[in-house]
Amino acid sequence: MTSAERECYHALVAEMGLDYVFFPQIHIDAIVQPTGTRNDRFYAFRHINQKSVDFVACETKQLRPVFVVELDDRTHNQPKRIERDREVERILRDVGIPLVRIENRGRFEPKALAETVRKGIVNAGTKPV
Q: Check: CATH 2.40.50 for 3-123?
């Protein structure tokens, strides 16, 4: 985990930690279950098993994923990364898990970060639990 990711994580936990449990560096196959025929599931698993997200926020009782946070730094401007980000967005949208993108501008103030996350969830068309 980078220092920016660590700082973002601590800011999320400080402001939203009573409402959600945050897990860092989670592979998508841990939160998305492929469906369909056996071959379809195998293909889907192979497609998602190498992709991870920065943070998964889960509801506190059942630990069900509620939303995902991606911290975008300058590497997210590279063509391959843009393609990967679009695919992650599609996968999460298809299963109804909102993705909130946070631009890495250095320091993270917990209240401002939490407000950005809440707005991102609303913009994704869902409400947090």
A: no
